[in-house]
Amino acid sequence: MSGMQHSTYTPKSGIGRWVDARMPLPRLMYDSFVAYPVPRNLNYAYTFGGILSLMLVLQILTGVVLAMHYAANSDLAFNSVEGIMRDVNNGWLLRYMHSTGASFFFIAVYIHMFRGLYYGSYKAPRELLWILGCIIYLLMMATAFMGYVLPWGQMSFWGATVITGFFSAIPLVGDWIQQLLIGGFAVGNPTLNRFFSLHYLLPFMIAGVVVLHIWALHVAGQTNPTGIEVKSKTDTVPFSPHATVKDGFAMIVFLFIFAYFIFYIPNFLGHADNFVEANPLKTPSEIVPEWYFLPFYAILRAITFNIGPINSKLGGVLVMFGSIVLLFIVPWLDTSKIRSAVYRPWYKLFFWIFIADVVMLGWVGAKPPEGIYPMLALLGAIWYYAHFLIILPVLGLIETPRRMPNSITEAVLEKNGGSAHPAGAAAAPQTKG
Amino acid sequence: MRKILHGLAALAIVAGGTVMVAAAQDGNSAEPTHFPLLPPQEMSWSFSGPFGTYDKAQLQRGLKVYKEVCSACHSLNLVAFRSLEDLGYSEAQVKAFAAEYQIHDGPNDDGEMFDRPGKPADHFPPPFPNEQAAASANGGAAPPDLSLIAKAREVQRGFPRFVFDIFTQYEEGGPDYVHAFVTGFGQKPPAGVTIPEGTYYNPHFISGVSTHMPPPLSDGQVAYDDDAPQTVDQYSRDVAAFLMWAAEPHMEARKQVGFRVMIFILLFGVLVYLTKRKVWSDVVH
Amino acid sequence: MSAHEAADETVDGNRRDFLYIATGMVGVVGAASVAWPFIDQMQPDASTLALAQVEVDVSSVQKGASLTVKWRGKPVVIRYRTDKELEEGKTVKLSDLKDPIARNANLPSDAPATDANRTVPKREAWLVMVEVCTHLGCIPLGEQGEFGGWFCPCHGSQYDTAGRIRKGPAPENMAIPKYEFTSETVVRVG
User: Fold this and answer.
1) Average pLDDT, stretch A34-50?
2) pLDDT per residue as tens digits for the range C164-189
3) pTM recorded for the entire structure
4) What are phi and psi of C179, to 5 degrees?
5) Do A85 and A217 share a domain, yes or no?
6) Which site among A41, A86, A269, A407 would you substitute to test the B interface, given the most B Cβ atoms closer than 10 Å to its Cβ?
7) Is the pLDDT assigned to residue A124 strictly greater than 70?
8) What is the DSSP track for C121-183?
9) What is the CATH number of the domain that holds A93?
């Protein structure tokens, strides 16, 4: 709704009017990031979009300067990264910002996605917004994976070998596709070169899709914890300064934790084997992907048996990719008319069980595939699928939602102990800490 | 708040259940398949914690141990002589130290390779000309380069310790491992464990019951210039500290810059929070 | 609204403005501090700086011969000048020079371009010079040209036996780097 509203931008200076008549970029900025109305009841879970934008910019900036010192050649890559760590001025800082930044990018994106799932942000009219987000997530995974290959350590090399091995599972053309991807019969210098090229390219594609994502957001407007659409002006506050300063504060808290990791435990989220240069003749004792891929890795490894004509290798790959595809169709799997989990007691429970399931899958993904773990992985994968394919559709049909307030303003006033009295609420001189 | 509690409770139930099942699995052990057999002991290091710094005297002793013992088989390819100034040596000392090494260089104007004394800009020369030579001289297993060894060896800490490590800033797993490994020789293997010919049992070794590396150190082997004890334990601590420096030479700067950054963010965070409160003071939300 | 309330409001307003300005300024300081590492990383790194000084053994260089070494990515010529070349260099009047400044990093920046000022004391026969034409950076050819010094084939600049520009488009004498004879036979450049 808000994207359609009338622009209130009035250029103050002559130059402003001159520009506005020719290319109204300042007007677009003003309407999108100053006057743009956002629901007044957004909580801190809604600040992660801003945090993600910041992380994208930071990753691109650190990445561009690292590329000034990095050599994308299998003979030089490992040592050039160590040159950055040892000899380049502040190189250690920039590298740790970039490597830790990848992890924190994913922390933020997971909170952002789970927030969307919890508050039903994907429902009409925001399906495209959600799908664009899923595309960003996919691009992020591709970028992160290829970036992890660049230091050319043991994990880089064997991670690349395993992940490109997924494609060899495809019947008939699999081997051909794998060779096409890695440019040889095994991962090697051509692979490293093309991964570097793509790792540099993809973030800019992400930035492009982010623009579309924000565009779609500004057409439909933000959701909010109640899931009720904005009905009147009292339901909203202007983006600046209210949302900007709140987003800003959240960014700083996030940066605080980020800085703690960069400066005090920069290798905590990495893997020791990546400090050993790639050796095509020796596999590390266990290959573990970066933590943000672990749940999917567990799902991949859950399939250890043939399913009819599909062998276990192809089965694992299909089930793993399927678990991401499911995210794209969530808007149509969820049959509930109610958006927010706040008013859906059963969905809320299942949401948290789902989180627990994903955390468990992540934990299992880090464990060697032996003992109880393959069984846990299988159970976790089944639950993951069941959550999307059974629980989401069925719950929407049988669940009795809680009583909902009539408007955002009413919900806010109720929460603050006031009477449900929306008139002039924003103008009323109530204060709250 | 209640919803978070609910969620956490559900999470705890699922996680708790799986941990119990997993724990029940871990009991049986005939021929060991997970290494090391013994986790490294946590040592106290001058460089641990948010204000940790390298002990320069210790690094100098560690360099001596590396030079007189380890360097016979292990390279230190990524470390340049010039960076030894970090250990408290003067420019002239570094120059003299570098000149003790012969560096293979060339070709000269006649097209021939030659050896010349090392310069500060050179890196430590490797003991073997290539990996194949290193492997064939050492029973088929090339001794690893030590430049990054203190970051490249990490014994899994397991749940919940790895969570606590975030708050205790534990990142000394590498030096702990080096110390445990170097001092871990000479023990009797447990019954049922077979030690292959030509290898040495070491319960701290990260990828097997035994290693091709013979016990490298004995008491009194390296003569220290200061009054530090000349024992295997002290040697291994010193060389582990030296290797940590070799792997992460900018650690001190990192922690010092980090402290300033954290203070700044804290201060800025308070200001932005106050601003945020002011901005939102007239809105019920 | 009473006067009292109005006063309160102003105090409150001032405090709020102060808070906003303080927050903004601290934010700017933070952004600038973050920007610095991104700029500083472009400076030569430690491995490059370690090669910023080279020591050259010149014991094999006879009178009338020269040696070219690479220093900071550029050729440095070390020439043991003949007595004739030295004499030619000394007889030139400063007023005949296109560039009357010595361009010698071992001397003050306004030292005149006498022949002695193109070298270091006691080693006047040795010319240690960055062999890069001051016009557009080509490498001139030695012992050539009208003045018996250097001739740049790119645009025809001519230098004399002390590397001073005498004719052609180049604006300055070729640069003398910082150098020192650390012994009878060793020159340290840089």
Assistant:
1) 95
2) 999 999 999 999 999 999 888 889 99
3) 0.89
4) -150, 165
5) yes
6) A86
7) yes
8) TT-TTEEEEE---TTTS--PEES-STTSSEE-TTT--EE-TTS-EEESS--SPPPBPPEEESS
9) 1.20.810.10
